[in-house]
Amino acid sequence: MPVIALRSPGLLTQAGLFVVFAISIASAEPYVPQDDHMVLASVPVDAALVRLRAGQRRVDDGATDPSAAIALAHEWLELGRRRADPRFDGYAEAALAAWREEPNPPLELGLVRARLFERRHDFNSARAELDRLIERRPGFGPALLARAALWRIRGDAPVALGDCRAAANDVGLYLATACVAETMGLGAAAERARLMFERLVDQEQVVAATQAHAVRLAAAELAIRNGELNLAQRHLDAARRIEPVDPYRAALQADVWIAAGQHAKVLEAVSADAPLVLALRRAISVKAMGGNELELNRRLRGWFESEQARGEPIHSAERALWRLDVEPDAARALAAARLNWSEQKRPHDLWLLARAALAAGDADAVQAVREWISDTGLIDVRIAALLAKAP
User: Fold this and answer.
1) pLDDT by residue (tens digit) across 294-318?
2) Residue 102: strand, helix, or coil
3) Buried b (16+ CB within 10 A) or exposed e, 15-28
4) Can you list the pairs that 229-236 forms with residues at least 24 positions away whose Cβ atoms lie under 8 Å?
């Protein structure tokens, strides 16, 4: 299995600079170059950061056309997504700073602002931004699809379906169908959703790679919930061929391996210095194999503690997993899972709540999971197996 390129971005991003090392090979005495300009070693320049920072300088110098700022913000967000590094969100915000207070920004700028809100888990502000865009341009497909995704996060599939269908005239049948399939997969129509994904996969050669990649990931998530790990693996393999570097896909892949007990594959694919969501999967697999990576655990613990101290709930799902599988503490796991559930109501979040409820022996939390399944018709073999063990 090839190693997934998921290293956290290092500090080797000082644009245009060479780093000089005093190296002594033959003796213990340090080598001192005779010429201050002699280059002894060089660190590769991060070309993406050099280019984006140059674009940022142009925007900062007073460019009045928002299209350049919008394009730059998109690129910062994409870089942050590919590197699983939320720090790049700040650069995206800076690119849009001149239009921060604009009440009626270009529609595309409003989409970026909504995405930034969503990435901070400020779902209400994200939805308000999208509501304004749709009010200004009824039927605006990208905003309708984005709002449908927010409804899915909040667990309101019927409303999400309405937005999916309303977007069809603007974004086309492929994207609208993908939206419908992903939404239907959250309820009793999971089999119909699976068939819809099959038809979408058959069309992936004639659609944009980003669209085909997103469909494969959604289909993989549905297969995981259905207990079809081999099918999920095929979708993940296809997604990797389309886009080799994607931390979200890599986390799904690690989850499939963990579910199948293939922890060695996780250790092979995910480094100890990977981004948080991936490093956590590595820590889970290390623990499952009877090992203990102290530095990795220290780094993860520091992440969670600093986030809690700031009162940020963004990684409460990961904190629940940490307290379930790495440093077990049922009460803290349940508290984190409940906090996460108050923000996000995806199947994965319900699975976490069910796991934590059983670990803590909390009958009320178990009942809340049962009621959600009953109300929505969600099909998830992982949750069903957990509930079968509950008193």
Assistant:
1) 999 999 999 888 887 777 667 899 9
2) coil
3) eeeeeeeeeeeeee
4) 229/256, 229/259, 229/260, 232/256, 235/201
